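Here's what a typical entry looks like (LPS-assembly protein LptD):
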Amino acid sequence: MVTRLQQHCLRCVLISLSCSPVVVFAQTEWMECPVPETIPVGSDQRPSSLPPQAVYIEADTALFRAQGLSTMEGNVHVSQGDKALRADRASYQQPEGIVSGSGNVGFSSGNMQLRSSELHYDLGKETGEMQDAEYYLQQADGHGYSKRVVQDPPGLTRLENSTYTTCPADSPDWSLNATTINLLHDEERGTASNATLKIRNVPVLYLPYFSFPLTDARKSGFLWPIIGSNERSGLQLSIPYYFNLAPNYDLTLTPTLLGRRGLQLGSEYRYLTEKHKGTLTYALLPDDRASDKNNRYYFNVQNNTRLGSVSSLELKAEGVSDDQYFVDLGNSLESTSVVNLERRLEYRTAGENWSFSSLLQNYQVLDGGVAPHARLPQLLLRYRPPQRGNGLNLSTETEFTHFSGSKTETNGTRLDLSARVSKKFSTDAAYIRPSLTLHHTEYDLDNATETRITRSLPSASLDTGLFFERNIKDGRYVQTLEPRLFYTYTPYRDQSNIPVFDSSKRSLSYDQLFAENRFTGKDRIGDTNRLSASLTTRVQSPDDGRELFRASIGQMYYFDDRKVTLPDEAPVQGDKSELILEAAGEINPRTRLSSTAYWDSGENTFNAGEVRLRYKDDKQRIVNVGYAQRKDDFESASLSFSVPVNPRWKAIGAWEHDLQNDRDLETVIGAEYESCCWKTRVASRNYLLPDNTTRDNAVFVELELKGLGNFGSGTRDLLRDRVYGYE
C-alpha cells in the first residue's frame, strides 16, 4: 500500500563537515577515490508536481492517526525538497511533530549522504539526533563515522567521537579523529576538540582544540606548521596564525623557531580597498645565537593607490638590518645573491596624448659595492600628438632627475629633452620607415671641475623590410621570409666630461640590431654609423597562427670606429659585430628547442651561446636540458626532470654545473608520492653561497592532505622554480 501525506512539512536535520584549513589552498588535481557505499534513498520517487515544502511519503504498509503516533514499515521513503530519508521502519508523532526512523536509515541532502541505525527529529524545535552514523560529503569528497550526531539548538550540529578522511573507507591512509566536532552552520565555521591526525593509523599530530571554516570563506586560526632545515640555521619550525580582520584585509603572524639562532617573529598584513591594495611584511630576530648581530630584521612594503581613473601612486620599499641577512637567513640561491634592495615611490598619470610620472628612488647595498645614485626626484613627461594627415608620427620626452646620495661619485641634476619624428611607407609586402631624433641634455653638477655641461645630438635611422610567404606541405603550413635592413647614424660628440649616473653598455642581442643607441640611460649617446642586416624565416600553422619554427640571422656593419665610451674604456674598433643566430621551434608536439649563438667570423669561434631543450608529454614526463657559455667568462650546463616511476611515485631533480671551474652550482633531488587522498614531496638541496666557497644543504618536506590542505615547507614552489613545466 502506498500512502501520501501532505498535511505537514518535515524539516530533516542537515549535517555538514569540512576539515579544510583556515585559509584556502591552491586547487590541486587529484585522483578519484572510491565513493563509500551508501543506501539509495529514492529521491527520484518524489512526484515533480509537488511543491518543494510538501512532504512525500511512501511505504509498504502504514497506519496513520490524526493524533498520536503514525507508523510505517517496509521501504519507507520520506522526501522534502532536495532532502530524502529511507528506513525499514519509521514513525510520526502528532501534534508534537517528532519523526523517528530505524533499521538501515539512509539520509541525503544537497551535498551529503548518511547511513545510520537510528534517527529522531523534532520538527517543532528543529532538533534531533542520529546514532552510529556514517556520512559522505559529496562536495568535499570526504567521509567518516560519528557515534552520535546531535542538532541542538537549531543551527548547531555536534558530532561525537567522530572520524574524517578523504581516503577509501576500507584502508584510509590518513584520518582525523576528534572527541567532539561542532558545526555552526549560520557562522559557516566549525570547531574540533581533542583531535588527532593519524597517518596509517599512527598518531602524528595532536590538537586539543582548533577551528576551521565550513565553506571557502576565510577564518581566523592557526595554519599548518612549516618545517624545514639548513646547515646555517638548523631545524626551522613555523606556526603561523591567521587573523581574518575583515573581508578586505587580514594579518598573519608567524613565530619561527630556528634551531641554531633562536626565535624569529614574522608578520604579513594584506589589504584591498576600492583605491588601495598592498602588503606589509616584517620579520625580526631579536637575539641571533649563531652570530654577533642582534635585532636582525627584514621589511617589505608594497602599496598601490588609485588616485583617479588615470592616476596611481606606487610604493615599494625593501630593507634588512645588515649585509649578511640573506646569506644567513635566506632559503634560496636567489636570495643569497641579492646585492641591493630598492626603495621607490612613483606617481603616474596620463591623458589622451601624454603621460607623466615622478619617481623617488634609492637603494640599500648589501655587497659592499658602490651604491647607485638616488633619484630624488625623477620627473618624466611624454607627449605624442595625434597623427596628422601627412602620416608623420611625432613624440617628445622630457626628463628631469636629481642624482644624490653617492659619497664617491659626482652628484647633480640632469635635464634631458628629446623629440622624434618618423613616417612609415608600407604595402602588404614591404615597408620603409625613416626617423629623426634630436637629443638635448644639460647637467648641473656638485663638486666637479666642470659644473655645467650641455650636449646636443641628432640621430637618424632608416628601417626597411620585406615580407614573402608561401604554402608548404600542401597548404598545411605557411613559411615566411623576412629580410630587414636598419641603418642608423649619430655623429660623434666628446662626452668624457659627463658623469655616468645611469648609463651602461647594452649586451649584444638580436633586438640590439635595431636600436639607435648602444648605451642604456641618458648619459651616453653613442656615435654610430652602421647598417644592420637580418633575415628571419618562420613556419606557421594557418589554422591557428601557431609558430612551429623560427630562425633568424643578423649582423651589424660599422663604417666608423665607436669613440664614445664609458670611463676607463678604450674606443671600440672593428667593421662588424658578431654574427647573431637564433632558432626556436617544435621538434614534435612534445619537444621544443631554442638556441642563440654569437659567431666571431674574425677568429672563427663562438663567443657566446645558449641551447635549451624542453620535453613534456601527456604522461607528465618532463626533461629540460640547457647549455650556456660566454668566452673567457663562464660555461655552464643544466639538467632538470620530473619522471613518473609508477602511477603514484615521481622522481624530480635539477642540476646546474659550472663547467669552467668544474663545480656544481646547485643540485636538487626530490620525490613525490600521490594517492587519491594525500601527497608528499621531499627534496634535498645543495647550493653554492655568494662567497663562491661555502656550500649549504637544505631539506624540504611537504605533506598535502586532500580536504585538509598542506603543511611542511614550500617544496612544491622550490620544484616549480627549478623544473620548467613541473606543476
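Residues 43-218 form a domain with the lipopolysaccharide transport protein A fold fold (CATH 2.60.450.10).

More examples are in the samples folder.
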